[in-house]
Amino acid sequence: MHGGSFFYTEILCTLSSSCVKQYSSLGSVRRIQDSTTQGYVVALRQGKMKIPKTEQGLDLRFNYLAIQGYFTTKEDYSIQILITCKDEIKRKLYFVSVSEIKIFESYAIIPNLIIPAGMWVNVCIDMNSFIEYCFGTQMDYVDSILVSGNCKLRVMFSLKFPLNDSVMPMGSQNRNYLLPAFYDIPNANTILVNIYKFKNKLKNDKSISYGNLDIKKVDSRINNTFSNSNLLAYRKYKQNKHSEYYKKLIDKIIKKRLTLFQGK
């Protein structure tokens, strides 16, 4: 990883005892020694940890949030990111244990199924991809981060470019970061979480519902991008969730929207 504020900003580092000054807590949140990482981590046991500790926002301008953590199970934790968007509206991304994406006017609820549980992992969240997809705008800066439930946290960074994804081919990683050796945990996977990977997960996992994916305030945002026939297809799909014909149409609509956001 490149050093300096031009490429990343450290949000939390539990290697130093001064890290307790970086967050406020509620419930059981303690800095403990961890045998796997051979160092100190912050352990949440039905607790909440909010960064920053003060009312003043983080003002983080980079698109990627990296969290090095151990998440016991997918049902046991949640991550909430408060973001001010380019249209000067504050919106929240909730990563929780749910079976479908739900998009509302000022927040989106997103399943945390992509993030592995029961192991140390470097999670790199492409926040702007979710903001663009869910709200049709771009993020400006991150105000705050709230982690709740049962988990262990070691470090957090705001990044200009994403971390290397352990499951991605090497050819796609030429602009990405590797963790510095002193932050690295042996055998810990790095997972890039963005809407494009999530859409593929939705497509392949039959246990996950589309919910109101791509639509809340349907008329105001979809009509600007797609024809009335596509909007009608979505409404018919909502009336008959077992219709494979309309489900395929929605897949095509989502693919078209993703292509637009990727600039292809």
Note down, in words, how this protein is organized:
It holds the Pfam family CFA20_dom. InterPro entries: CFA20/CFAP20DC, CFA20_dom. This protein has 264 residues and is α+β, with helices and mostly antiparallel strands. The chain has 2 domains: 187 residues, Jelly Rolls; 45 residues, no CATH class. Helix content is 21%, strand content 36%. Strands 1, 2, 3, 4, 5, 6, 7, 8, 9, 10 and 11 form an 11-stranded mixed beta sheet that branches. It starts with 7 loop residues before the first strand and ends with a helix. 33% of the residues are buried.
- The CATH first-level class of the largest domain comes to Mainly Beta
Number of strands: 11
Shape assignment: globular
Helix content: 10-25%
Tell me the major beta sheet: 11 strands, mixed
Count of discrete domains: 2
The oligomeric status of these chains comes to single chain
Instruction: Please name the CATH topology of the largest domain.
Output: Jelly Rolls
Weakly predicted, low-confidence segments: 169-175, 212-231, 257-264
Report the mean per-residue pLDDT as an integer: 77
Radius of gyration: 19 Å
Count of DSSP helices?
5
- Give the topology string: H per helix, E per strand: EEEEEEEEEHEEHHHH
Percentage beta strand: 35-45%
InterPro entries: CFA20/CFAP20DC, CFA20_dom
Pfam family, one: CFA20_dom
Protein name: CFA20 domain-containing protein
